[in-house]
């Protein structure tokens, strides 16, 4: 499961990481509690260069009758991604990167779940593997949406949740974006849990459970807030 994440870097840092050198004309601001249904930053490759833009989180397949289907398509399981009708074609031809610098998950059960912030030990930007598609509404409105690919948890994550987003190694980002690669057998080896020893997690405030909270307090270690 991947249901919340952060991207708190500056636009300049984001563009430098993805080798984007044109002037980005869209809106951008650091986000501390990105949630499903919202517009999220994503990277695609147009055949010549990387492009930065926004996609709505919750994939609506081009063949869907209703855009509400997107609320069921927040994540795509790596194990079945090539078999599910909603994900099969995007896996072959419409792959994207969803930049983040951490994601949240909840540890425990029942009413006492503790939100955790999970990030790389380097604290660098990382790329979650994503798929995208464009749906056209009955009135002709085109809506571009995305989903985050997930895999089984690594050793560190197992104590928090059984699933985690697929985090692509830096050197594999270009492979995932390469539109000339349509053989999914070439891509399957990328859909692995990220190395556990390169990640860490710490508890944060339960305020991240409310999507209206999107500020620096969301990422403060719980010990500093008490």
From TrEMBL:
<protein>
    <recommendedName>
        <fullName>Abasic site processing protein</fullName>
        <ecNumber>3.4.-.-</ecNumber>
    </recommendedName>
</protein>
<keyword id="KW-0645">Protease</keyword>
<dbReference type="InterPro" id="IPR003738">
    <property type="entry name" value="SRAP"/>
</dbReference>
<keyword id="KW-0227">DNA damage</keyword>
<keyword id="KW-0190">Covalent protein-DNA linkage</keyword>
<dbReference type="Pfam" id="PF02586">
    <property type="entry name" value="SRAP"/>
</dbReference>
<keyword id="KW-0456">Lyase</keyword>
<dbReference type="InterPro" id="IPR036590">
    <property type="entry name" value="SRAP-like"/>
</dbReference>
<keyword id="KW-0378">Hydrolase</keyword>
<comment type="similarity">
    <text>Belongs to the SOS response-associated peptidase family.</text>
</comment>
<keyword id="KW-0238">DNA-binding</keyword>
